[in-house]
Amino acid sequence: MKLTSTTSEFTDQQIIAGIKAGGAQQERFVNHIFDTYQGLVIQATRKHKLTEEGARDAYTDAVIALRRQVLNGNFRGESAVSTYLYRIYQNKCIDAIRKMSRQRVPTEYEFPDIADPAKDALSHMSVQEEFAAVQRYMDGLGEICKQVLMDCLFWKYDMEEVAKRSGLPSSKIASDRKYKCLQKLRKNMKK
User: Is the pLDDT of residue 32 over 90?
Assistant: First the structure.
């Protein structure tokens, strides 16, 4: 669906160039987009049955996403800026609807869980035993493997940071090392 606006005084190429220019020009063109296509908010309140606030939030998110897509080079001009914005906005509206449907409806009476101390002690011992076993397997891998796996899987570092922390030359090598270390860990755990 192509949106047309009688208030649009810029071509798509001017809008894209203005956003890529950055600074005050970017702000001007993003504000232009925001102001020009605000009618989408009213459409969304009718079509998707969103509140005006929810529709407006989704619209703001869509304009921000469009800006990011232009700056990243993901928007290649294969469709009109307005059409691209409309698609993004529809997806943001659907996300808002999903978010609303996932919100927990509070019940009138909620009963606290009563913990069984014996069950907690047994599960705690079980977890400690499993942790000790994994730690023994990890110790058998060597320091580099141990460092790579802990950084990736436990500390959640990205592969570039893992490479730096482990003294490896690149993220590709760190990724390969992670795979080999996981294979070695699995093999050791099967013994």
Answer: yes
